[in-house]
Amino acid sequence: MKYTILLIEDNEQNLYLETFLLEQNGFEVFAAKSGPEGIALATKIQLDLILLDIQLPLMDGYAVARELRQNQALKDVPVVAVTSYAMVGDRERVLEAGCNGYIEKPINPDTFKNEIEKYLKPKPVNGGTKS
Ligand code: MN
Fold it and tell me: How many Å lie between the centroid of ligand 1 and the Cα of residue 120?
């Protein structure tokens, strides 16, 4: 069974790199370029993880995380912030907003998959229907 991941990211290059790395590793990827678009998608798709940029237009990542956390249907979906704010205190802000953790930008292609996998629940190897 594939993991399904939603990327909420407004930067084309980051979106491209993250999508490439995830698809290369067998993940199914959906993308949204703004918070409202991401929140709308999250309510329609069965997700295993949401990767959330913090610097977004319209609505920043903190506000998006808070809104996602108000949705009971999404309470078991991990939300991981992707942020270039590596300053002390930002980790707390990200967690306070409801994120389960964070990954620092720039994305490191060598460690990205491992960082993501920390937040994914194991899936049964042969759990899907056979065709
Ligand atoms: Mn951004």
Answer: 23
Residue 31, beta-bridge partner list: 7
- Per-residue pLDDT tens over the stretch 94-124: 999 999 999 988 899 999 999 999 999 988 7
- Distance of CA 53 from the midpoint of ligand 1 (Å): 6
62-85 per-residue burial string, b: 16 or more CB within 10 A, e: under 16: bbbbebbeeeeebeebbbbbbbeb
| CA 14–ligand 1 middle distance (angstroms) | 8
pTM of the entire predicted model: 0.91
The predicted-structure confidence for 30-86, as pLDDT tens digits, reads as follows 999 999 999 999 999 999 999 999 999 989 999 999 999 999 999 999 999 998 756
Which chain residues have CB less than 5 Å from ligand 1, an ion? 10-11, 53, 55
Domains and CATH numbers, the chain: 4-128 (3.40.50.2300)
